[in-house]
Write a structure and sequence with these properties.
Catalyzes the synthesis of 5,6-dihydrouridine (D), a modified base found in the D-loop of most tRNAs, via the reduction of the C5-C6 double bond in target uridines. Specifically modifies U20 and U20a in tRNAs. InterPro entries: Aldolase_TIM, DUS-like_FMN-bd, DUS_fam, DusA, tRNA_hU_synthase_CS. Its EC number is 1.3.1.91. This is tRNA-dihydrouridine(20/20a) synthase. It is a single chain. Helices cover 43% and strands 12% of the residues. Strands 1-2-3-4-5-6-7-8 form an eight-stranded parallel beta barrel, surrounded by five helices. The protein has 16 helices and eight strands. With 348 residues, it is an alpha/beta fold. The two termini are 34 Å apart. It folds into two domains: 258 residues, TIM Barrel (Alpha-Beta Barrel); 64 residues, Four Helix Bundle (Hemerythrin (Met), subunit A) (Up-down Bundle), CATH 1.20.120.
Length: 348
Amino acid sequence: MTEIVRDSNSRKNQSEAAMAGGFSSGRFSVAPMLDWTDRHCRYFHRLMSRHAQLYTEMVTTGAILHGKGDYLAFSPEEHPLVLQLGGSDPAALARCAVLAEQRGYDEINLNVGCPSDRVQNGLFGACLMAEPQRVAAGVAAMKAEVAIPVTVKTRIGIDDQDSYDFLRTLVDALVEAGVDALIVHARKAWLKGLSPRENREIPPLDYDRVYRLKQDYPGLTIAINGGIKTLAEARSHLQWVDGVMLGREVYQNPYLLAQVDAELFGDLRSAPSRHQVIRELLPYIERELAAGTYLGNITRHTLGIFQGLPGARAWRRHLSENAHKRGAGVEVVEAAMARVPEPELDYS
């Protein structure tokens, strides 16, 4: 590590300065995950952390501008909230950024990291790393139209284009365009031959490269993503970079979020118990059911809330077997929760 970052105290001070300068929410964020971090998931996550920054799933510019649904819908409770965009046309990106700002989003993030074939065919995602000027043009177009931050989420490389100079070429272009922050998944992406899931697991992690990037661009806010599973690991990364992003671990073990405010933001207000979280979710469920939402579309995000506790399997089984049934309501959730013994104090 010493050959990359020689002064850990200096790096820590820079990270704390970035936090004080407006990146405090980005100090810890939940990654955008396609088919996972929808508005129901985000509302549920917000019940456990006041400060974690939440992201939408990636939404394409085409869906927003030409789709029939409302792809920008969210609940006010979700703030601070980032819209992640997929696209490469500067005019379309700028128009979507304006619409997002008008709807109240706190930040716009451009996806330059997704490696799926479908995304590549639409000319967005990780394949854009090979076209830094195109990415920079999109960032500049959005920056010219909105006052909220515009950020980019990227990988450290693609295919055999994985040198540090390749990454720096992209970063240089983004800095010139005025990007407000960079979130770096510390793996390269293989655009052919690996599935999106394999691309999250097989390419080796290279945290040092992200640390080096922060050292070389001390004025650029940089967050790190990839393979981080615990808040202890998150604190370790925060010695070198400005923010950490967790994805699958939070989704599979959502109660991890209940410790984020105290451990990473210094907010020592009492965290809700697991049972309290579900009780606080019930009014939202009732409201959504009245609007025509199926119960299972909400409860699928809650299956891991009791992970590691007696009764967790019974909770998951009851929801999995009953939430999809016609007419299923909050009584299904209450019956599932009754299968998990509730301790007097559950702040574990």
